[in-house]
């Protein structure tokens, strides 16, 4: 599979989870903007054949190179940033949950999920949009995970797929700031993740980011219980030049920490949108 096919298929799966992303994409195209992706992001467990180390070879095979690691102690996550083989392809942000840091009960739930993974499914790059590689957990198990890690709960039901794509604001002409992009997104009736402020980062840290609140979809949990839960979101990023004149390539941990909350229904900005409906 070449890199273009990889991202085409990843995008198709992503917009099936987050129809808001196709709407936003089309709205900017209608304004005459060209969409290039700054990065995409994946979430995984550090257990059971889908660890960061297990998934990374698929990225390396596409020509990606490791950039640098990031740590999120409070969220119990670690991550790596990857650079694409060519400038017109997105960077990748790949994170994993440090399962050892959860309670024994939560670890037991996760172990029950990852034990179901079929080894043949993880050998090909399409594992990165496979969704769940296990049966749906019960809603009770989902809520038990949620009490300790929103990331764990999200991953238990949504599975492996692009958690978000990110529009490169650097490539926009009219909507040339993250704030202008966010205002346009809001004019479509979509909510913005305000955790840590609407815009995370600054020109000083060489990266400004904003994101939507995740779209929502009904999922069938074990025992046929249907619940609406947050799925995937869209991000907007503007990069600045480093002192040597090249564009900053990394991520910013303090900003990423808040971007993760785009899927967190407990995020106060999610609640205001839900109440407005
Ligand atoms: C990733 C959040 C971090 C960024 O650009 O800093 C991130 C996630 O929600 O899985 O994407
Ligand atoms: Ni991101």
UniProtKB/TrEMBL annotation:
Q: What is stated as this protein's family in its record? A: Belongs to the 2-oxoadipate dioxygenase/decarboxylase family.
Matching Pfam families: HGLS (PF07063)
Record's keyword terms, sorted: Dioxygenase, Iron, Oxidoreductase
Question: Under what name is this protein listed?
Answer: 2-oxoadipate dioxygenase/decarboxylase
Q: Does the keyword Oxidoreductase apply?
A: yes
Q: Which domain of life is it from?
A: Bacteria
Q: Which cofactor does it need?
A: Fe(2+)
Report the top EC class in one word.
oxidoreductase
Q: Give the Gene Ontology MF terms in alphabetical order.
A: dioxygenase activity
Which EC numbers characterise this protein's activity in its record?
1.13.11.93
